[in-house]
Amino acid sequence: MHVILGFLGTIVTILWLLHRLAEMGIDLGGLNPWAWARRRRWRKAYEANPVFAIDGPMDAAALLVTATAKADGDMSSEEKQAVLGLFARTFELSERDATALLTASVHLFGSGEQVATQLKQVLAPSVAKFNEEQTEQTLDMMRDIAMIGGSASETQRALIRETERVFAEKATPAKAWS
After folding, report:
1. DSSP state, residue 76
2. Per residue in 122-133, pLDDT tens?
3. What is the mean pLDDT of the chain?
4. Which of 59, 145, 161, 177 is the most exposed place for a label (fewest CB within 10 A)?
5. Do 102 and 145 contact (CB within 8 A), yes or no?
6. Cα–Cα distance between 99 and 80 in angstroms, integer?
7. What own/partner pairs with CB < 8 Å and gap ≥ 24 does 170-173 have?
8. Is 0.70 surpassed by the pTM of this model?
9. Which DSSP letter does residue 70 get?
10. What would the pLDDT profile of 147-159 be if each residue is shown by its tens digit?
């Protein structure tokens, strides 16, 4: 009996010390490996670049068109109006929605390093959702935007070629724009 009382006393003492440590701000819950893995997974998702999480064909196409327009620097007002017109016609959006899509695409594009250097990884979540018509429309929009200022620059042609290569490697399901 005295062994059981000693064991229970030890447990109560440990629990009391843990409680007092928690009151002082020292939390031993951080030693839990499952909680650590969950926090790490959440932090990776939270701190990740959102350009690698685009999973809709319309958003990916808008990013590619924006990348084509901004391939040689900032977008001119003529290119901006052409992009808005393409978004409105191709995606059947209102002027306000087309402007919002362009704004979001410019924000996601950022400095453009990821789109230029890691296009396959950027398109990875969405490329399987493109159907043949969407692929052609996206490439046509990119070509149209590249030709706005006359002939396409080498940077724009390289981006279009790389996009064609990524689309050529994909499988083919998907439905209408979504």
Report:
1. P
2. 999 999 999 999
3. 89
4. 161
5. no
6. 10
7. 170/127, 170/128, 170/130, 171/128, 172/131, 172/132, 173/128, 173/129, 173/131
8. yes
9. T
10. 987 888 899 999 9
